[in-house]
Design a protein that fits this description.
It is a single chain. The chain has 273 residues and is α/β, with parallel strands linked by helices. The chain has two domains: 57 residues; 184 residues, 3-Layer(aba) Sandwich (Rossmann fold), CATH 3.40.50.150. It is 38% helix and 20% strand. The chain contains ten helices and eleven strands. Helix 9 runs parallel beside helix 10.
Length: 273
């Protein structure tokens, strides 16, 4: 049955902005067109497809998966259920990384567990002189990351494997960044994230094992005066600082826009002269 844009949006039961985004996606038109012409008739096949999308959204499926993309640092990134949905909090990690990259003429940068590639691709585009490498243990995730690099014109070298094991043994970097799985198993927030890949959210334990592996291997991979930056949970700042210290790294914690500790940043401690 055909219906008007206005009637479909109201019937969806979704917040108006979300409903409008889904309908515009289905019709392949600009959202502004739906605002300007709410009386436009929608064909029955498109109306039914929109209702199906709205139903999936109402059940909790992320809007980004339904639209097939998510904005990050001002760019649209392809996302699929094989990768996490990029989040605004992670832009802090990018900001802090760029500050340190700009102090190096041709910074060598490593993104561990790249997922959608949003961090690696953004760093490569914001700092064209950088040599950016990204790793992930998932072939499906790497396929998404490569697609984003190609679409956005970013030069990134991708490698498959677990953390540093994906790399040649003698390769070192001026900057290592990562947004690893850090949610503890049993955390109630995981229920709300059930549509996203669990392996990218949690280590199945206390949420610290991936952060520990990254910190422990950083000393052998960082160039002199190189930096390690990792995203972590709101309640993990002290634990991550301890992991950094045990791995010979100084550590600082930075808060996100909501005031929650979100990124740990450190350098290899220099021996006294």
């Amino acid at each position: 049955m055909t219906s008007t844009v206005a009637a479909l949006l109201e019937r969806s039961g979704l917040p108006l902005l979300e409903a409008r985004a889904l309908l515009a996606h289905r019709l392949q038109v600009a959202r502004e067109r739906l605002v300007a012409r709410p009386e436009t008739m929608v064909a029955a096949t498109d109306a039914e497809a929109f209702v199906a999308l709205a139903r999936r959204r109402a059940l909790g499926e992320p809007l980004a998966y339904l639209l097939g993309e998510k904005e990050f640092y001002g760019r649209a990134f392809v996302v699929t259920p094989d990768v996490l949905v990029p989040r605004p909090e992670t832009e802090l990690l990018v900001d802090l990384a760029l500050e340190r990259m700009r102090a190096v003429e041709r910074p060598r940068v490593l993104d561990l567990g790249t997922g959608s590639g949003c961090i690696a691709v953004t760093l490569a585009l914001e700092c064209p002189a950088a040599q950016v490498t990204a790793t992930d243990a998932s072939d499906a995730a790497l396929a998404v990351a490569r697609r984003n690099a190609e679409r956005l014109g970013a030069a990134v070298a991708f490698h498959r494997g677990d953390w540093y094991d994906a790399l040649p043994v003698d390769e070192s970097f001026d900057l290592i960044v990562s947004n690893p799985p850090y949610v503890a198993a049993g955390d109630p927030h995981l229920a709300d994230l059930r549509f996203e890949p669990m392996r990218a959210l949690t280590d199945g334990r206390d949420g610290l094992s991936c952060l520990q592996a990254i910190a422990a291997g950083a000393g052998q991979r960082l160039a002199p005066r190189g930096w390690l930056l990792v995203e972590h949970g709101y309640d993990q700042a002290a634990a991550v600082a301890a992991l950094f210290a045990r791995s010979g790294l100084n550590a600082e914690s930075y808060a996100d826009g909501a005031g929650q500790p979100r990124v740990a940043l450190g350098q290899v401690r220099q021996a006294p002269v």
